[in-house]
């Protein structure tokens, strides 16, 4: 058992391998995983996760920025790394030097990249309705012209589904329309004699709710890590996923709190009876949302311990009045399992009125990541 640190993250690599296998069974033949390990692998640790996936035989990855891609290269990842977002012309040299694949965000951007003068591999983004990045799907001629740029090597085209997590009839219709628009672009390129490029469109929910789509890659993100964006997601029963990440800290000290005494910044909690409270060495700088003040909870000694008072930058307080056997140095779990109790990232997210993607990706850099 890991024994160091004031607060840390444990990564269960067996669960990661299990989740990979679950998605590989779900995908149609010929469709490979392209894991999204952006935002420090959704807070899990990009280098640790990237190397683990690489050793599982996964060769294609996607990230959000050049710096994220370079981190993976330096970690020994030699496969394809696609940058899903914008890269400044000041960083075009990094694309060539580190053999990275850049997203074409629109035709004007393609011309800028071509003017750099060195051969760069790209995937062309196609806007099918999200209206964020990519050349609009109806601009077939502009998309076609990208292949004519002499310093651009197009190896893929992709789009992004924006409501694939929803089961409403309206959203399903919108998603099916996005898929049809993307396929029409692929068909138009083929009709012009352009072949040999890879295709991808689905993220986690695209695979969970539309698993039969025959594209070359699936950009699995949040679900790869064994969690869902929302604890109420209807897709939970579709695959057997196991959480990879546990978030833990330690009790610093335990003290009494007497009736009428208040605690923490702003004195937002006042005891109405004698209590026992514990200071825990974790706070919002580590990624515990401040919005959990006076309403979140942790697990200590197998029982729920409510967060009381305001969450501070480096510490918070919990109510341990009902926990008889607990002492300084004991573990406190904020995401993870303890005895018969478990807190999922989506549980914390629901309490904080957000999604688990945000909870995980904002976990602090001072938290040591440990593979177990």
Report on this structure:
- This protein has helices at 13-26, 38-42, 46-55, 66-74, 92-97, 107-115, 140-146, 169-191, 204-209, 345-351, 356-361; strands at 7-11, 32-33, 60-63, 80-83, 101-104, 120-127, 135-136, 152-158, 198-200, 217-218, 245-257, 262-263, 269-270, 275-280, 297-300, 303-308, 316-319, 331-338, 341-343, 368-371.
- It has 372 residues and is of the alpha/beta class.
- It has two domains: 13-233, Alanine racemase (TIM Barrel), CATH 3.20.20; 245-343, Beta Barrel (Lyase, Ornithine Decarboxylase, Chain A, domain 1), CATH 2.40.37.
- The relative contact order is 0.14.
- The mean pLDDT is 95.
User: Based on DSSP secondary structure assignment, what is the total number of beta strands?
Assistant: 20
Largest sheet: 9 strands, mixed
Number of helices: 11
> Based on helices, strands and strand pairing, what is the structural class?
alpha/beta
Helix percent band:
25-40%
User: How would you describe the shape?
Assistant: elongated
CATH superfamily of the largest domain: Alanine racemase
Span of the ends, CA to CA: 8 Å
What would the CATH topology of the largest domain be? TIM Barrel
Number of domains: 2
| Average pLDDT for all residues | 95
What is the CATH architecture term of the largest domain? Alpha-Beta Barrel
Q: Strand-residue fraction?
A: 25-35%
CATH class of the largest domain: Alpha Beta
What oligomeric state do these chains adopt? single chain
Low-confidence stretches: none
Rg over alpha carbons: 23 Å
